[in-house]
Amino acid sequence: xxxxxxxxxxxxxxxxxxxxxxxxxxxxxxxxxxxxxxxxxxxxxxxxxxxxxxxxxxxxxxxxxxxxxxxxxxxxxxxxxxxxxxxxxxxxxxxxxxxxxxxxxxxxxxxxxxxxxxxxxxxxxxxxxxxxxxxxxxxxxxxxxxxxxxxxxxxxxxxxxxxxxxxxxxxxxxxxxxxxxxxxxxxxxxx
Length: 191
Fold this sequence. Notes:
- By secondary structure, the protein is an alpha+beta fold.
- It has one domain.
- It has 3 helices and 9 strands.
- The chain has helices spanning 4-27, 91-100, 123-131; strands at residues 35-41, 46-48, 51-54, 64-71, 77-84, 107-114, 145-151, 161-164, 181-187.
- Mean pLDDT is 74; it is low at 25-51.
């Protein structure tokens, strides 16, 4: 498959980013502004304390939305969901809603799409992602590339979001747009 090479690069970048987060929190060597550092690409690997929790190698990421919840104060990984299938049936959207509804204030929500983030996305799911700070969720379409980091209780829209539309005239990989990536720091005061 032609996506294997780019997907490996994306996975590698996410592993480095999340190891950076955990390392800076464990060693206490964050910036003077006490920030969480992050880099996110989709689809992703999600490590904690050197252990990879989600990856294509472990066969626990998949079509739809891949999501991790991180404590916004400690940086501790709280929960992951291998994938919410946004293409087939209603189980993906129903499970997504059950997963996002109880998210409490101060929780960081890391999202990376793979294949299709939007076909089964309903208004309640869009509202939940909007409350986490997403702008792009309102315009997601079939096979768009989307990565997002938001937080419950965020005052403004999250600056940690990238969205590339699926367009047969501009797609980089046959039927898919290019992979997207975000990079930056999340100040604690934003939460």
